[in-house]
């Protein structure tokens, strides 16, 4: 540990011994009485969006004396305008209120202190109390643009605060203060619209590298404090400069015998003035900006960033320091008198030198976020338990250009978002908070040069937060108007059972324009029929609805994109693209499969895909024939799940997987294969693109290189989706040499620009889906060795950074093209992960974009591939897995993500799903390489469906139930007897009765184990399924 610094003060402070003796006598005389304590504050402690016009109040455990001393005991400090606020204080019973003369500025953090000068009606002094809140900002896009470049020369270390915003001249707007050359702080005055001018330079100690502002002398304006390093004397200096109508005069100088990295400002002793805290020592303010040595801070060595915040909610400011060399944040708790103690360290990783505190998850206490160095470029979120203990939340993986994070409400939705910059990039990047501490989406803003520092404030007076990035100049970027965004309304995002004749509807945050551009901004892509769907778009109120000309296919997953071509009625373009997906409903069935036709194909078929390639309304099939000839067999459906005709389409060598998608946007399904490619001439792996002429004939296309730039390729898997939100289908393809994943962007006409990223050591299967629900498609890649799945989040523009999570799955590995899939198995609105492991299938539940352990589903041997589909038509996604025993295990979902059953159907190594016989249920097929054929398995027992309006009137209550449950039926279903079956999660019938046709009757339940049961009611109009919870 370093020696504590010795501080030399110029001029010397007079000792306040006489005043201290008087204070001690006063405390002694009142010792017999219990001090009034704060029982509530307004705005609430750590509020994230307090009105800017708010009064500030504290309620006490005892009635207060209505004296001048008590009224003057509530001190309110603005960080950006007015310093110690002027205003009017009133006492009303137990409550002391303060009405500021001027409003607070948008998004600033305000500190308030109730000092011991306040007294009860009995004359007992209160216990001092400090709290903070953040003021509201106006709704905005959260996107930064425009602005100007402000000339300020000089630089500093990127982990230090180099600039601040504050109204130093008292004209109501925020001025800019910045570390500058010539041992000065440059002052640039705002003209009110975010344009800065002037050339004032305030002399400070040599080589300043840290800057803070605050009203140190309590005169209602903002003073400045800087820290510098004198290389001649090898000492740090702290300079205090007092404000006088925007002009700064000399103040105190502190010289430290050890290096001072940073200074923080706050009332640490609860006496109503702002003290200074360094990484080494506390400097106590006597009320007029004269300081004396306090206690050492006891922070770990190398605490580069400091924050004062009441993390244990006890009414005083605690101290946190980011320790760069030990990858941790030190937490030291305040005893209320400015003395810090404790030994807590929170391990964050990544050499933290970016650091910010705030109520990230909205639970009323202060959390923090740090960022690390280039070798660990993550946002490390640490959540407070309310008493100052912190736990690590999942990191947000970002690139090395995101350091020095700031927590601010940049879009005006009442929570704290993340803004950051620095490192080696000339950008400012934002991540939006969903209100509960999960971050996603956001935008990037270009700065004038590489930035090493940012500060935020409302520089143009429009009520939202703008950003200034510090590089070679100060780049001012203004927050744009309120966000104009779209989100899926119907079907909902990730819906599991959308009506096949549904319209696709999105809702806007503002009224959209009823123009062709807006009407065409919504594009809908069928994976199995029609590609980019034709239809009619209609604008009504705040919604845009698209009515497809043809219905969706049973069980297919549909993707939709809303592009930024959409405009509001005022001409504002959508802030960002929005991509979402849903699954079409299937008809109720037992979910039992029987043998169908056998379809001859080319030699050695490896994978199968279904799609209506000839536009006749039924699903045709394609197989990738894994041979040196390089062909795909197209076989046309006769409408009844028998196949004939078709063609052989030439593709690349050894096609590994085949897929359909409308890549040229002409309303039919084109064909793509990923090819191994190394047998002839050791060529890299490719993707063959073959375009459909609309009648199922595939001709013109291209070859896209997806393997390594040089050397052997081994293409593995392909998945199509609109990665960059521009309303055409891109694709990702894996080539497992060195973990290569090709990210190929569509030019809009079926030609592609290939890029590559590296994921793990072996990139096997890949899948796209919006796992964090932020409106873009994220990427998941499986790595067989060790059984890992890498999760890479999309930045909204089709760029995938470092992985955000590595998800472990059971078993030593998996190696097939479709070893992972996504779907909402537990009905919570997000996409869960299903992956094959060793002897089981692993369910990993999604919670806010992070995957957690779930069920291990037993299947009939080592699984090869896995798929999700609603095979029994009950509105949830069931599980199908091919196994090494040449079977397909079918496991039914109980609706909440628990799978059961023991149906095993003869099958093969790969599975494809679709409604082949047009009966509204999902069938499957598998290739039989030995016989050069595809075998069909039909789900052909369709149950009658009760009309939805009747099914909704069937009620079970109470639910949860115990010994009995009441059944209510609508009159139309009670005219005839009803067959009742209660089925457990294993698929076993535990109760079966024939009920008389009555609208209300009680059903006695046997002694059932607590759990979830499916109640099946067979009526004259079909089957109704209801879920029953037994406790």
Task: Give the topology.
Blueprint: E1 7-10, H1 17-29, E2 38-42, E3 56-60, H2 68-71, E4 74-78, E5 87-92, E6 95-100, E7 109-114, E8 129-134, E9 144-150, E10 163-166, E11 175-180, E12 184-190, E13 196-203, E14 208-214, E15 223-230, E16 235-244, E17 247-256, E18 263-266, E19 275-278, E20 281-285, E21 291-296, E22 303-309, E23 318-323, E24 328-334, E25 340-341, E26 345-347, E27 354-358, E28 367-371, E29 378-384, E30 390-392, E31 396-397, E32 403-408, E33 417-421, E34 427-433, E35 439-440, E36 444-446, E37 453-457, E38 466-470, E39 474-479, E40 486-490, E41 504-508, H3 516-519, E42 522-526, E43 535-540, E44 543-548, E45 557-562, E46 578-583, E47 594-600, E48 605-611, E49 620-625, E50 631-637, E51 643-650, E52 655-661, E53 670-675, E54 686-692, E55 698-705, E56 715-721, E57 730-735, E58 740-746, E59 752-758, E60 766-769, E61 778-783, E62 788-792, E63 805-808, E64 820-823, E65 832-836, E66 840-847, E67 850-858, E68 863-869, E69 878-883, E70 887-893, E71 899-906, E72 912-914, E73 923-928, E74 933-938, H4 948-951, E75 955-957, E76 964-968, ...
Keywords: Signal
Protein name: SbsA Ig-like domain-containing protein
Domain SbsA Ig-like: 34-135, 484-583
């Amino acid at each position: 540990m370093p020696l504590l610094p010795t501080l030399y003060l110029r001029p010397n402070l007079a000792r306040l011994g006489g005043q201290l003796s008087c204070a001690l006598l006063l405390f002694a005389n009142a010792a017999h009485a219990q001090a009034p304590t704060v029982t509530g504050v307004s705005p609430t402690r750590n509020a994230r969006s307090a009105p800017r016009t708010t009064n500030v109040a504290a309620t006490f455990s005892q009635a207060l004396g209505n004296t001048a001393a008590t009224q003057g005991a509530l001190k309110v400090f603005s960080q950006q305008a007015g310093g110690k606020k002027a205003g009017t204080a009133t006492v009303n019973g137990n409550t002391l209120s303060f009405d500021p003369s001027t409003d607070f500025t948008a998004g600033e953090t305000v500190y308030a202190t109730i000092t011991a000068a306040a007294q009860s009606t009995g004359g007992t002094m209160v216990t001092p109390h400090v709290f903070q809140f953040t003021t509201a900002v106006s709704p905005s896009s959260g996107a930064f643009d425009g602005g100007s470049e402000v000339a300020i020369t000089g630089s500093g270390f990127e982990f230090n605060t180099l600039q601040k915003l504050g109204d130093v001249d008292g004209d109501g707007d925020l001025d800019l203060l910045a570390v500058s050359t010539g041992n000065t702080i440059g002052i640039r005055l705002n003209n009110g619209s975010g344009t800065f001018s002037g050339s004032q330079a305030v002399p400070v100690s040599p080589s300043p590298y840290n800057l803070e502002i605050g009203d140190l002398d309590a005169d209602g304006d903002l003073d400045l404090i800087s820290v510098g390093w004198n290389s001649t004397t090898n000492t740090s200096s702290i300079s205090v400069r007092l404000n006088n109508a925007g002009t700064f005069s000399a103040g105190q100088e502190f010289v430290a015998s050890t290096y001072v990295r940073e200074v923080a400002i706050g009332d640490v002793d609860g006496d109503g003035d702002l003290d200074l805290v360094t990484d080494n020592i506390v400097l106590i303010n006597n009320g007029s900006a004269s300081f004396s040595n306090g206690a050492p801070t006891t922070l770990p060595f190398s605490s580069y960033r400091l924050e004062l915040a009441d993390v244990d909610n006890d009414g005083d400011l605690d101290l946190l320091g980011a320790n760069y060399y030990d990858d941790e944040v030190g937490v030291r708790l305040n005893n209320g008198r400015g003395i810090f103690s404790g030994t807590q360290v929170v391990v964050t990783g990544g050499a933290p030198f970016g650091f910010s505190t705030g109520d990230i998850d909205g639970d009323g206490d202060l959390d923090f976020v740090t960022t690390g160095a280039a070798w660990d470029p993550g946002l490390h979120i640490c959540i407070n338990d309310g008493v100052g203990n912190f736990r690590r939340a999942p990191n947000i993986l970002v690139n090395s250009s995101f350091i020095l994070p700031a927590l601010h409400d940049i879009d005006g939705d009442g929570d704290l978002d993340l803004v950051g910059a620095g490192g080696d990039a000339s950008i400012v990047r934002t991540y939006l908070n969903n209100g509960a501490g999960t971050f996603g989406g956001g935008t990037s803003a270009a700065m004038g040069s590489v930035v090493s520092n940012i500060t935020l404030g409302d520089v143009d007076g429009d009520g939202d937060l703008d950003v200034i990035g510090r590089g070679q100049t100060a780049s001012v970027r203004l927050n744009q108007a309120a966000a104009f965004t779209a989100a899926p309304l119907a079907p909902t995002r990730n819906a599991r059972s959308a009506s096949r004749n549904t319209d696709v509807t999105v809702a806007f945050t503002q009224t959209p324009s009823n123009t062709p551009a807006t009407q065409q901004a919504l594009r809908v892509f069928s994976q199995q029929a029609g590609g980019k769907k034709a239809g009619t778009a209609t604008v009504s109120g705040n919604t845009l609805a698209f009515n497809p000309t043809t219905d969706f296919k049973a069980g297919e997953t549909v993707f939709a994109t809303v592009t930024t071509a959409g405009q509001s009625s005022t001409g504002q373009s959508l802030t960002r693209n929005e991509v979402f997906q849903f699954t079409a409903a299937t008809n109720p069935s037992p979910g039992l499969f029987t043998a169908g036709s056998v379809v001859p194909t080319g030699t050695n078929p490896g994978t199968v895909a279904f799609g209506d390639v000839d536009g006749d309304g039924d699903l045709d099939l394609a197989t990738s024939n894994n041979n040196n000839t390089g062909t795909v067999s197209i076989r046309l459906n006769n409408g009844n799940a028998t196949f004939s005709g078709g063609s052989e389409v030439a593709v690349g060598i050894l096609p590994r997987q085949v897929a359909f998608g409308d890549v040229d946007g002409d309303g039919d399904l084109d064909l793509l294969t990923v090819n191994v490619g190394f047998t002839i001439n050791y060529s890299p792996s490719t993707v063959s693109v073959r375009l459909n002429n609309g009648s199922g004939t595939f001709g013109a296309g291209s070859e896209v290189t997806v393997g390594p730039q040089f050397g052997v390729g081994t293409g593995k898997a392909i998945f199509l989706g609109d990665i960059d939100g521009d309303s055409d289908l891109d694709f990702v393809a894996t080539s497992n040499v060195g973990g290569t994943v090709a990210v190929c962007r569509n030019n809009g006409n079926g030609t592609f620009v290939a890029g590559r990223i590296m994921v793990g050591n072996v990139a096997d299967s890949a899948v796209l889906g919006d796992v964090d629900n932020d409106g873009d498609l994220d990427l998941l890649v499986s790595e067989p060795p060790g059984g890992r799945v890498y999760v890479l989040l999309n930045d909204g523009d089709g760029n995938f950074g470092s992985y955000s999570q590595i998800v472990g799955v059971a078993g030593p590995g998996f190696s097939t093209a479709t070893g992972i899939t996504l779907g909402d198995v537990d009905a919570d609105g997000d996409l869960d992960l299903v992956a094959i492991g060793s002897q089981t299938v692993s369910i990993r539940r999604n919670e806010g974009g992070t995957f957690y352990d779930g069920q291990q589903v037993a299947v009939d041997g080592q699984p090869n591939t896995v798929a999700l589909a609603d095979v029994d038509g009950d509105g949830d996604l069931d599980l199908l897995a091919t196994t090494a025993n040449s079977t397909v295990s079918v496991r039914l979902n109980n609706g909440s993500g628990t799978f059961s059953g023991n149906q095993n159907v003869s099958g093969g190594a790969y599975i494809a799903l679709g409604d082949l016989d047009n009966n509204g249920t999902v069938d499957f097929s598998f290739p039989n390489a030995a016989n050069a054929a595809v075998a069909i398995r039909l789900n052909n027992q369709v149950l009658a469906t009760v009309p939805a309006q009747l099914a909704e009137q069937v009620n079970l209550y109470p639910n949860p139930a115990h010994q009995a449950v009441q059944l209510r039926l609508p009159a139309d279903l009670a005219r005839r007897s009803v067959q009742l079956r209660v089925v457990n999660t294993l698929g076993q019938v535990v109760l079966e009765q024939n009920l008389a046709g009555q609208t209300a009757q009680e059903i006695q339940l046997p002694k059932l184990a607590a759990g979830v049961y499916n109640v099946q009611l067979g009526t004259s109009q079909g089957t109704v399924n209801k879920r029953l919870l037994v406790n």
